[in-house]
Design a protein that fits this description.
Layout (H helix, E strand, L loop, with lengths): L6 H14 L7 H15 L12 H16 L3 E2 L7 E11 L4 E8 L2 E8 L4 E3 L6 E5 L1 E3 L24 E5 L17 H10 L4 E5 L13 E2 L12 E4 L9 E9 L1 E15 L6 E7 L27 H18 L8 E7 L7 H8 L8 E7 L11 E5 L7 H6 L7 E5 L8 H5 L5 E5 L18 H19 L13 H4 L8 E3 L8 E6 L4 H5 L6 E5 L2 E2 L3 H8 L7 E8 L2 E8 L1
Parallel strand pairs: 7-8, 8-9, 9-11, 14-15, 14-16, 16-19, 17-18
Antiparallel strand pairs: 1-13, 2-10, 2-13, 3-4, 3-12, 5-11, 6-12, 13-15, 17-19, 20-21, 21-22, 22-23, 22-24, 24-25
Helix pairs in contact: 2-5, 2-9, 3-5, 5-9
The structure holds zinc ion.
Zinc ion binds next to helix 5.
Length: 574
């Protein structure tokens, strides 16, 4: 017996299939040109890096609201012109923060006071207070373990004095012998142990590594401060005996209140459940809070951190999905589109939102976060989805989706350092789309020109397909994920590398090594694969983190790396 299918029957079959897996409704060229337009606007210098609470953040929020409006997405309950305003506090150095002393200029004694700014600023671990005392210069302030080299040997008593310390280390251009003693905090501790009541670090060479000036800092960054004021001064003549005693260091802080804005669009499908799709749009501004990984050799410059990948890319994808989903046939959920602010300052916006939701928290089906989706590596042809352990459904559904032949690397944990974590801790299944870290991460060079728009198109299609695949399913159940205790531990030491999170081989592949940190000092390069630390073999990130926990600051050990298939043994000092 043979079956004859009527054209109508085939049409019905096809249309059922099409409802289930709707094609992405826009061509690649249409979508990529919109994505490029969004990223170009958000990552332009004009927006000044979109620091939460800044003018640039405000301009970005207005732009996003306009895009929602164009897509017929309505303002969510409790917002004003799509904006949900939250306030937050920062600490800043009070205007009396200064270094004062007298100097002899043209045979005349003049009193000088350097106010806080790019050329005079407290270091992160400075205490608060005012101190007036004689100055003593202690060279580099370094004493080696063997005692062969000791800057304190011939300088006299330090007790009760302000010490000035050259922030460089001996023979930097010739050898790395003293690099292990370069850490400023360790040198401050050493001076404090000897009775110093204040510390002034200075430099005579612009190549010396000095932490950047921070205009603001968060309350949480204030832990672990020393009990004496510690400043960096760009004035090197402090050490040259041109000045008269005593010196005065004042370090004081004041609290300032700022406002940030989440931008929230609502797509009401009269459904019982709501899907949250989010991306943070804020970034580091001019690095006022010091989250930059870029160490400038010029101390008095403010560079815009454009944040094209982090996270103009996710924000652009968010606006594209708002446009597409508002016209789609996926109607079994409502959608809340959220551009978060204050992510870079500690998930401020998403924390505020989960406590001030426009919908009942129990009706949220799942949350999708896009943070850094603009650097799909064409050669690796893969990207990461984090949070797949937060619902038993995730991996089953994700396994059924293939977009443009891309491989997806899953990671189960629902916590992490982006906005999905705020939803995860509230028992909501989450996913975080991520195309991987890179050497421009948190640097002024995270620019629009480096964005892979074809890759972003693939990510947008992937999410659209996932949302479609879940449309006919009931509300996802939530499962807490096993947090690897090693990843939560705080380490006494760090290598100062950026791992390649998409690397799948044995060991930990280095995507970048921060200058001045142990790995770079040891000669570890981008592309190296760390195979062994001391006598601990490194299989993956987990064993790497556990291994780090075994070392102490100042300790030296051998590290085995694979470079172009050759094994190298390097000495690393933490
Ligand atoms: Zn980010």
């Amino acid at each position: 017996m043979r079956y004859f299918y009527s054209p109508l029957f085939i049409w019905v079959l096809l249309s059922i299939f099409c409802v289930k897996a709707q094609q992405y409704p826009y061509k690649k060229s249409q979508t990529t040109s919109r994505l490029k337009q969004h990223v170009t606007f958000l990552a332009a210098d004009k927006l000044e890096g979109r620091l939460v609470g800044s003018k640039g953040e405000e301009q970005a929020s207005i732009y996003i609201a306009k895009q929602y409006k164009k897509s017929a997405v309505t303002p969510a309950t409790g917002t004003h012109n799509y904006l949900q305003t939250f306030s937050f506090k920062r600490l800043t150095y009070a205007s009396n923060t200064s270094l004062s002393y007298s100097a002899i200029l043209s045979n005349r004694k003049v009193n000088l006071s350097l106010p806080v700014g790019y050329t005079l600023y407290p270091l992160d671990f400075s205490g608060i207070g005012s101190v007036t005392a004689p100055l003593i210069n202690v060279g580099y302030g370094i004493t080696t373990e063997t005692g062969d080299y000791d800057d304190y040997r011939n300088v006299g008593a330090v007790q009760g004095k302000i010490v000035s310390i050259n922030a460089d280390y001996p023979n930097r251009n010739m050898s790395k012998e003293f690099a292990r003693y370069a850490d400023l905090e360790a040198r401050a501790d050493s001076a404090i142990r000897r009775g110093a009541v204040g510390i002034i670090f200075y430099t005579q060479d612009s190549a010396t590594q000095i932490p950047n000036y921070k205009q603001y800092f968060t309350y949480s960054s204030f832990h672990g401060r020393k009990n004496v004021p510690i400043v960096f001064s760009a004035q090197s003549n402090l050490s040259l005996g041109l000045v008269h005693e005593p010196y005065q260091i004042d370090v004081d802080t004041v609290t300032k209140v700022f406002e940030g804005h989440n931008v929230i669009g609502w797509l009401d499908n009269k459904a019982a459940t709501t899907v949250v799709i989010g991306a943070h749009y804020d970034h580091l501004g001019y690095n006022e809070l010091g989250g930059s990984t870029y160490i400038s050799s010029v101390k008095n410059e403010a560079l815009v951190h454009n944040g094209a990948d982090d996270n103009a890319s996710g924000t652009a994808a968010l606006m594209e999905l708002a446009k597409t989903l508002s016209k789609s046939s996926y109607k079994r959920n409502n959608y809340l589109f959220v551009a978060f602010s204050g992510e870079e300052e500690g998930l401020l916006g998403s924390n505020y939102l989960v406590n001030h939701l426009p919908v009942d928290k129990n009706t949220i089906n799942y949350m999708i976060n896009m943070d850094m989706v603009g650097r799909l590596d064409t050669s690796k042809h893969s990207f990461a989805i984090n949070g797949t352990g937060t619902s038993p459904v995730w991996e089953k559904v994700l396994d059924s989706i293939t977009i443009d032949g891309l491989k997806v690397k899953y990671s189960q944990s629902g916590s992490g350092s982006s906005d999905h974590a705020s939803f995860y801790v509230n028992g909501i299944p989450v996913l975080h789309y991520f195309t991987g870290s890179h050497s421009d991460y948190h640097k002024p060079s995270d620019d629009e020109a480096l964005i892979n728009y074809d890759g972003m198109y693939s990510i947008v299609k992937h999410i659209y397909t996932l949302v479609g695949a879940l449309d006919s399913r009931s509300k996802l159940s939530f499962t807490p994920t096993k947090e690897d205790t090693a990843t939560k531990a705080t380490f006494k030491v760090t290598l100062g590398i950026m791992p390649d999170y998409l690397y799948e081989g044995k060991g930990v592949k280095v995507d970048g090594a921060t200058p001045g940190k142990p790995a770079a000092n040891a000669g570890i390069l981008k592309g190296d694969v760390i195979m062994q630390l001391g006598n601990i073999s490194i299989d993956d990130m987990q064993t790497y983190m556990k291994a780090l926990g075994k070392f102490n600051k100042g300790q030296t050990t051998k590290v085995k790396v694979l470079r172009a298939d050759k094994e190298l043994f390097l000495d690393v000092t933490f």
